[in-house]
Amino acid sequence: MARAALDMTAEALSRKAGLSPEDVAGLERGGAEGAASAKLRATFEGAGVAFLDGDGVRFDPRQAAALTVPLEEMNSYNDE
Prior knowledge:
Blueprint: H1 2-6, H2 10-17, H3 21-28, H4 35-46, E1 49-51, E2 57-59, H5 61-66
Antiparallel strand pairs: 1-2
């Protein structure tokens, strides 16, 4: 659900989170917790996804925009 909010493919998410596509698929199926889960959550939160109490997420484009580096400030140090 969080990945859908970002309109991101599983492959793109795995690259951004530094995980294998298999790890992402396993976590989406409710697989293992731990370091991979924490990386995935941090990636989502960094992109503007807020996790709600219980089951659910919300996308806050203002939060995502605040994390975006303006084009004129882009350089080799902040290029993702």
